[in-house]
Amino acid sequence: MKLTLFILSLLLTSFLFSHTSNAAVTCGDVETKAVSCVAFVTGKQPKPTPVCCRNLKMLAASAKTVNDKRAICRCLKEGVNAFPGVKDKYLSQVPRLCGIRIPFPVSLNTNCDSLASLSFATTTVPDNLHWASSRVDK
């Protein structure tokens, strides 16, 4: 519980700067959805949970404009940077494991300002991909 509150407070603090954009997506929305993925991106779970994937698919679907995409990217990047336990090798796996096609590499070093009219798409990922295999690159 303490860890969850700590993560939420870090994310909320770092997300506040993005509320000034013209995007319809707020950092509060991003924070609420992304926190369910922290256990995977920190290496504490072998795969993203179904809740994590569902939440990220909702975020991808809500990115209607370039400003939305940039806002989501900035919120995620700032939130990730505020939590030092996030590992790039796990973060980069999230789109594939959750069935979200993103036309740029997901990384701690992603340049959110370079996002233009790129589209996000979601696909259906079989349940066995999420939970039957285990990660070996710990």
Automatic annotation (TrEMBL):
Gene Ontology MF, one: lipid binding
CDD domains given in the database record: nsLTP1
Annotated InterPro entries: Bifun_inhib/LTP/seed_sf, Bifunc_inhib/LTP/seed_store, Plant_nsLTP
UniProt xrefs under Gene3D superfamilies: Plant lipid-transfer and hydrophobic proteins
UniProt-listed SMART domains: AAI
The Bifunctional inhibitor/plant lipid transfer protein/seed storage helical domain, residue ranges: 27-112
A biological-process GO annotation: lipid transport
Range of residues in the leader sequence: 1-23
Keywords, alphabetical: Lipid-binding, Signal, Transport
Function: Plant non-specific lipid-transfer proteins transfer phospholipids as well as galactolipids across membranes. May play a role in wax or cutin deposition in the cell walls of expanding epidermal cells and certain secretory tissues.
PANTHER family: NON-SPECIFIC LIPID-TRANSFER PROTEIN 2-RELATED (PTHR33076)
Family membership: Belongs to the plant LTP family.
Protein name per the record: Non-specific lipid-transfer protein
Species in which this protein is naturally found: Rhynchospora breviuscula
Lineage, opening ranks: Eukaryota, Viridiplantae, Streptophyta, Embryophyta, Tracheophyta
